[in-house]
Automatic annotation (TrEMBL):
GO terms for molecular function: metal ion binding; peptidase activity. One of its GO terms (biological process) is proteolysis. It comes from Longibacter salinarum. This is Peptidase M20. Residues 486-507 are annotated as: Disordered. Residues 235-378 form the Peptidase M20 dimerisation domain. The keyword Endoplasmic reticulum does not apply.
Length: 507
């Protein structure tokens, strides 16, 4: 007796739907339940202290001799004036003249240390006349503090000092030693700043339990099918490689051009690399990002990501169609320089292009170079690797230190979804990866689409309410780190801190 094929197909469909439904029902949230806190009252002078810090023209330059050393020095002197308790309680070491490392001795020498990092250099201003207020005026208007560095990264630096000043004023004594690592050249690579600070710590036998730096933020309306803001915590940074592609050939007069010009060769090479990028994948950090976010999606999104065994190919394809999500799942390929020719009637004998790759952690500089060579092996070109750096180590996403960061964010920022993510750019934090397994990149800015354009752009600003949350975040990081009971012979007890109001926040 044979069964009707239509009946078999119907039964198979029912089984498939049942599997999809069961897997979706078992797709549990990765958000921790917390007792939320209300930030301590903000000193009315705190926004004005930030505004004053934004007035110092600590503009970064690739050539260190070109920076305004007086502005950098004045900024550091201002820190001493504005935060006297920090400077009384902490040891202070200048690194390469302009970077600063503060050390707040903990009460338990066996409990490890916490590094809180930021930088105070800022990028130049291209169009100051387009700002509503001067980029270095430090104006407060309508609950916002305006100025270059308000988002990147003076607000983080000053919030660190405000938070420590408040803890010290309340009589708090940290169990773990706390370091404030304030770099001065992050915008040009951090080699003289954060890299030198990390070397100093290593030379003095310091292996921090955790490092907290900039890199992620609270995104508002950026993740489809998730109604809540999403706090993205950077757990790794992409690598970096620029490759010069050069073609040398016969030049000549444009009236009798050769069959193939150097420009033809280089543009063919560039287009071939664009048409054949490295493979996209949902594995690694991005896979974990989805596991944290997808359970908070609506029914359609939750069902899709709960059943990657069936829909992985379709979802990967869909993510490649948007530049932002495509960058999250593959090593990106971006032509950035094209150079050839000096006159409109002369065929140039030489043409060159530079292609920049941002490398995901599962791949390496060598992998990218092998890919480039395989794609362009038949073309008469030469390849010249230029600036390069490997992806950073991936910090753990399923241990107590990531949980601490996640819990702290959810305590101080109401109603946010927290997820790890891969930072597409570079920050100072990569320099600390050699001395700490746990390097997390996050500051609790709330960024809308409009705000994203203000970073390094026009009318950079931060809301006072957001700044208040930042101060609470850094205070709570220190308290939560002290309460983490992993120290030998310690019960995780911490000394008294400024009083906060707690209330339940469920997952």
């Amino acid at each position: 007796m044979s069964l009707d094929p239509l009946l078999l197909a119907g039964l198979a469909l029912l089984v498939l739907l049942a599997v999809l439904a069961i897997r979706t029902a078992m797709f549990r949230t990765r958000q921790v339940a917390v007792r939320g806190i209300d930030a301590p009252d903000l000193d009315p002078e705190a926004p004005r202290r930030l505004a004053r810090a934004l007035q110092f023209k600590t503009i970064t330059q690739r050539d260190p001799s070109e920076i305004d050393a007086d502005a950098y020095r004045a900024y550091r002197e201002y820190l001493e004036e504005a935060f006297p308790k920090v400077h009384d309680a902490m040891d202070r070491t200048e690194i390469n003249e302009h970077s600063i490392l503060y050390r707040w001795e903990g009460t338990d020498s066996d409990s490890g240390s916490v590094v809180l990092a930021a930088h105070y250099d800022v990028v130049p201003v291209d169009a100051p006349d387009q700002w509503d207020h001067g980029p270095f005026d430090g104006v407060i208007e309508d609950d916002f503090v305006y100025g270059r560095g308000a988002l990147d990264d003076k607000a983080s630096a000053i919030a660190l000092f405000e938070s420590m000043e408040m803890l010290i004023a309340a009589g708090y004594s940290p169990r773990r030693t706390v370091y404030l690592a304030i770099g001065h050249d992050e915008e040009v690579g951090g080699e003289d700043g954060a890299a030198a600070i990390a070397d100093y710590l290593e030379q003095h036998g310091v292996s921090p339990s955790v490092v907290i730096d900039e890199g992620g933020a609270i995104t508002v309306g950026a993740v489809p099918d998730v109604s809540e803001p999403v706090a993205l915590v950077g757990v790794a940074e992409k690598g970096y490689l620029s490759v010069e592609i050069r073609a040398d050939g016969m030049g000549g007069h444009s009236s009798i051009p050769p069959e193939q010009t150097s420009i033809d060769v280089v543009t063919t090479a560039v287009q071939r690399l664009r048409d054949n990028p490295l493979r996209a994948s949902l594995s690694g950090v991005t896979g974990e990002t989805l596991q944290f976010i997808a359970p908070e999606m609506g029914p359609a999104g939750k069902t899709a990501f709960a059943n990657l065994w069936l829909l992985r190919g379709l979802i990967t394809w869909a993510l490649t169609k948007d530049p932002t999500t495509d960058a999250a799942i593959r090593t990106t390929t971006a032509p950035t320089i094209l150079d050839a020719g000096v006159k409109d009637n002369v065929v140039p004998s030489t043409a060159r292009a530079v292609v920049n790759f941002r490398i995901r952690p599962s791949e390496s500089v060598k992998d990218v170079m092998d890919h480039v060579r395989s794609q362009l092996s038949d073309l008469p070109i030469t390849l010249h690797p230029q600036q390069q750096g490997e992806p950073t180590r991936v910090s753990p996403m399923n241990d107590e230190w990531f949980d601490l960061v996640q819990r702290t964010i959810r305590e101080v920022a109401d109603g946010v979804v927290v997820a790890p993510f891969l930072v597409p750019g570079t920050t100072d934090s990569r320099h600390y990866a050699s001395i700490s397994e746990h390097v997390y990149r996050f500051a609790p800015f709330r960024l809308t689409e409009d705000d994203k354009h203000r970073i390094h752009g026009i009318n950079e600003r931060i809301s006072i309410s957001c700044y208040r949350t930042m101060i609470a975040y850094y205070m709570q990081i220190v308290r939560n780190a002290d309460a983490l009971g992993d120290a030998p012979g310690s019960d995780g007890a911490a000394s008294e801190a400024p009083e906060v109001t707690a209330h339940e926040r469920s997952a």
